[in-house]
Amino acid sequence: MSPAAQRAWRWFKRIAPWALAALVLALVVRQARTVAWPEVWRALQALTLAQGFTAAGLALLSYGLYASFDLIGRRLTGHTLSIPRTLATAAISYAFNLNFGALVGGFGLRLRLYMRGGLSAPTVAKVIAHSMVTNWLGYLWVGGAVLLFAPPRLPESWVPGDLGLRAMGAAMLALALGYLALSTWSRQRELSWRGHTLALPGARLAALQALLGGASWLLIGAIVWSLFGGRIDYPAVLGALLLAAVAGVLTHVPAGLGVLEAVFVATLGGRLPATEVLATVLAYRAAYYLLPLVLALPAYAWSEAAARPRTAAAQPLPTKGI
Predict the structure, then answer these.
(1) Who's near 322: CB < 8 A, 6+ residues apart?
(2) Which of 54, 106, 169, 207 has an alpha carbon within 20 to 30 A of 115's alpha carbon?
């Protein structure tokens, strides 16, 4: 590749995500103008307290499950931070990650909280990497199974079609199985990339990663499905959620704001009125995004306040001049 082509490619990689995000946001704003918001509000009011409490309980359970991903990183890196503190750090960071983006919660806040506990930056990076592998390994096999056996009904203008979705599902399952095979039979027990290394788990730990990661996505799907009150079958709801998750990652929009709603309306709007779908997704956002953040904010504030006395005690006393 020529130097000019390399420069053009670098500029394209910088601009393309922002251009895609701008396009998606423009489409979201355009769609939002067509929504009958009074009807959405009435649909929200129609949700029962039982549905709300069920969704809230499943959301908190899901956060606990997601936080356990960091225990795998704890095992593979050998760090000695306590299990409760590891779980608390992961849960707080996840709430910030969902609402404010990966750079704030997934990396910045987690790095700060772990390093305050005595971990080095390289160790924290490895813990984060193992957590991401667990999450996306679960996504691969759950999403692959959904696309292969129960692909979501997309609008006719969307590509790929049903056959393309099934092919993508088969490829995703193959990638998940490839990781498990690599963990089981590879003689090289570390993965290397650009000078960085990551321990490769054994067969049992890799299987646990797949189990926990998949259970996490299945549980998140159950939250949305419970809010639909059984009016839409679970595989369809799960498929819409999985598509929305990828769309949110690709557009880099914090909390997937608007993207989540747009994907659900596009995929499930033919089964229920769009206002009811939108109301359900907004209720899901309240249960899965906002409620945990309400709990995470004071927990993080307490962590900051508890750290100040230790920081002050560690500062050397001023010496008098001679």
Answers:
(1) none
(2) 207
